[in-house]
Amino acid sequence: MLLTDRGSLEARPLTPAGERILTAASTLFYARGIRTVGVDAIADAAEVTKKTLYDRFGSKDNLIAAYLEERNRVWHLFLDEQLAARAPGTPEEVILALFAALTDWMAESRRGCGFINASVELAAPDHPAMPVIVAQKQWMRAEFLAQAELAGFRSTEELADRLLLLHEGALVSYRVAAMENAPEVAGRAAADLLASWPRMS
User: How many other CB atoms are found less than 10 A from the CB of residue 96?
Assistant: First the structure.
């Protein structure tokens, strides 16, 4: 049902030690923040040496990028499952299902969007994780655009921009403003937007 290319989202083959490192880093980075977690804590949690960590990932920065790549892969798998369960029949229903999926996703992600959190912590534009963050958000916009075009709306670029702002705004409001119903509010706003948006004649 999703239309846009998601790139290479297959899990990278890792040794068992590499998998433990990535799992430990993912848990710690999301729970505590990227900058506050050092390689010592990750190595301890993964029950490996720091040398093994560096052998597998090269640097903490590369490990951060791998963490976000894995989170992106899990997000896409989650969306596939959500769409399969909701079975939207039209492009408009796909768009609204993407908003509805946020409710279940955020229930398991109490610290908000890992990509937004990482973008705040990683100020350097040349950090190896930044392309992962940018690509994830660009993919969401591209999916909204593809569905809007399929639905026959006018001014689809503008519509995609507005839908992305609603989607990302829900993620930020959930975390920063403690607005637990932000995904539902954004979904209703998206439904109103689609209902009033002009279509091709």
Answer: 20
- Integer Cα distance of 145 and 114 in angstroms: 23
What's this model's pTM, rounded to 2 decimal places? 0.90
Burial class (CB in 10 A: 0-12, 13-18, 19+), 86: middle
Average pLDDT, the chain: 93
CB contact at 8 A, 147 and 91: yes
Rg (CA), the chain: 18
Q: For 137-155, how does the pLDDT look when each residue is reduced to its tens digit (9 = 90+)?
A: 999 999 999 999 999 999 9
| Cβ pair 171, 186 in contact under 8 A | no
Burial of residue 112 (CB within 10 Å: 0-12, 13-18, 19+) is: middle
With H, G, I as helix, E, B as strand and everything else as coil, classify residue 199.
strand
Which amino acid type is present at position 41?
A
The 3-state DSSP class for residue 38 equals coil
What letter would DSSP give residue 153? B
Buried b (16+ CB within 10 A) or exposed e, 152-166: ebeebeebbebbbeb
